[in-house]
Amino acid sequence: SISGLQNFKVITMLGEGGFGCVYKVKHIYDRKIYAVKRVILTRKADSEVMTLARLDHPNIVRYITCWTDSDDWTSNQERNQVSNTSSDVVTFDREGCEERDDDDEDDEDEDDVTSGMESLSVTESASAAAEASGNNRTDSSRTYLFIQMEFCEGGTLTDWIKARNQMEKQRSIVEIHKIFYEIITGVEYIHAEKLIHRDLKPDNILFGADGKVKIGDFGLVAAQTDQNGDPIERSNRGTPTYMSPEQKNKKNYDEKTDIFPLGLVWFEMLWKISTGSERVKLWPDLKGQRFPEGFSDSYQTESKFITKMLSHSPEHRPHAKDIKEKLEKFFSLDQNLLSQKTI
Ligand code: ATP
Ligand code: MG
Ligand code: MG
Fold this sequence. Notes:
binds magnesium ion, binds adenosine-5'-triphosphate, 9 strands, 14% strand, globular, alpha+beta
């Protein structure tokens, strides 16, 4: 069994990334299926879990709870110090703490949501505990953070696109507009919460048990501005295939960076791409707002939207809110239709 997952039966591994992995698990007491993401405890992980815990929306993956695998964390006196704040370790009182000078090698990002805050929580306490017990931060002695979420049984949008490209399933234009509307609704909420997701792509867009879109993977989430409302100098991390030009090249970018990948995603949902080489050929054209023959004729309204979303000047891209309103207008997505199961 995996240290830190004692209360669960691991069913399968759902995904593996640079900093951790996601398991499909069954809780041994409540017998329910969950997804648990295991990540190395860094400021990045702290920011991911804090964000997920705070977000509450039908189109965002639902957070359940979190814990670490550090014995020190659960057994030493530090536990007593935070015990009256219950298991909600990421939100315990930060007042009076000094800002941490973070020199974790996995954690070059200076622009995450925790930067500029009074201090950190899980990261600081648990790594202090690990250091106190004489652990060098070698791989086996790292502290891991476990994030328990709702299990999205409908799989990812990548699966959805693959099934359609392989002709196992027909594309339905109503279904596409509904899915895209839910994605935009989730992103509108993220932006209204003054955050930037920074890693929107089909792998990070899931379908829940309710058949609705659930945006996941807040591993790169960042605040839109610093505490004074000023722009933040940012890193260029993200997924190159989907990244906006400014996220790749500039030190300053805002929430409009999330609109660019959504233009690519919408196109991929509409247009059948049969092979990997076809995709490789088509991609640079698409990023330059050039569509394959027939696309603009088949999808006049959509291609106009997508062109704007793929604009290389972020200020010319529409806000998530505008796209949502236009979708309602152009595709008459009324509340009746929207309340029906999507997939
Ligand atoms: P990082 O934060 O380092 O970028 P990552 O990209 O590996 O991590 P996620 O995108 O959160 O992590 O998860 C990896 C994969 O696991 C997803 O692409 C998806 O296939 C699966 N997955 C993640 N969360 C869930 C969930 N709640 N339900 C079902 N599957 C999930
Ligand atoms: Mg991911
Ligand atoms: Mg990721």
